[in-house]
Amino acid sequence: MKEHQESYIDDNKECMWWSETNPGYWTGVLAGRVWTLTQSEEQLWYTLHEEEKEEDRKEEEGLSEPPLKKSRRQLQSETSRAVGTSGRSGGEQIRGVDGLDPSQILQDYFQLHVSLSALYQGWSYTDAHFRNVAVKFPGVRVLRQDPVECLFSFICTSNNHLSRITNMIHHLCQAFGRRLCQLDTKTYHAFPSLQAMAEAGAEARLRELGFGYRARFVSESARAVLKTLGGAAGLQHLRTVSYEQARHALCTLPGVGAKVADCVCLMALDKAEAVPVDTHIWQVAKRYYGQELGMGARSVTERVHREIGNFFRSLWGPYAGWAQAVLFCADLKKYESPDPDAKSRCAKLTKSSPSILT
């Protein structure tokens, strides 16, 4: 199999965390900064927007285009096997979280150390159905998201549809997150801290914003993470424990079941073997891999979740969650499922697999 021509930036209009601000240009918040990404044939380019200062906001009120400073660098794609640029501008090192420069942040976010060509080759060898799908859906890459952002975004997806989930996450950031900057008419905020979501009055405020019963899950889970898991650092620590341990810890939180836990394990906690199972992926499993999967069950029970997850892990190996992401979105694209929960999950996989839905 040839090395894939990977497209890192998704052009699906349903992506919830990144929005296409101009044709081929995607803007969103990553590592507490506002980025605009675009891609040439072999390179990923970024613009890193400066965070507003308080005095700048006052001066810029009423302006549609604030005079924001920008730093532009290129990050060469995995196919060229080159390391990205240093991220220096005028002799100044631009840093994000964990002391990483922008190039390092993007390499970590897109998990460029993972060779997709090798994974696709292995999956195609053992799975004829995957081999057929892979031709039309190359370059599907699971992103490495911030654990707090990933966890609380997925808590908002419970029995929800895509447009409402998108609005809820926007309102959550706007109400509790730090304002970063304004580009044109859109204001960007950082994802809220656990302390902000756990503060007194947070649940009531979220209910005012239309979160419904999820308001309690958000505020109670924020308090639980702070109290029992060690806060944001504790969630980060789950990256170092086994998949089963991380999954168990997440399932103790209000509003977190097996599917949400597996989504967070896969997309934020480095558990590439995690296979999120919902009604849609159950149907995919039965349609292509055998009617006996989940036999006798009427819904996705813990038994069904475990049975299907174990089946795919035995078939695809340690990166089973990445392979499942390819088939999930490929099948959803093919059948245009009306299931709002499935559509919502595909949008999150789109973030985790930018490039696949055209």
Radius of gyration: 20 Å
Distance between the termini: 23 Å
Residue runs with pLDDT of under 50 for 5 or more positions: 1-5, 10-14, 63-83, 85-96, 335-358
Inertia-based shape:
globular
Structural class: alpha+beta
Write up this protein:
Helix content is 47%, strand content 13%. It is an alpha+beta fold. Helix 5 (147-155) runs antiparallel to helix 12, helix 9 crosses helix 10 (231-237) and helix 15 (320-335) packs across helix 16 (340-352).
What attributes characterize this protein structure?
16 helices; 358 residues
Write the layout of secondary structure elements.
Blueprint: E1 18-22, E2 25-30, E3 33-39, E4 43-49, H1 54-60, E5 70-76, E6 88-89, E7 92-93, H2 102-109, H3 116-126, H4 128-134, H5 147-155, H6 162-176, E8 179-183, E9 186-189, H7 194-198, H8 202-208, H9 214-229, H10 231-237, H11 243-251, H12 258-268, H13 279-289, H14 302-316, H15 320-335, H16 340-352
Antiparallel strand pairs: 1-2, 2-3, 3-4, 4-5, 6-7, 8-9
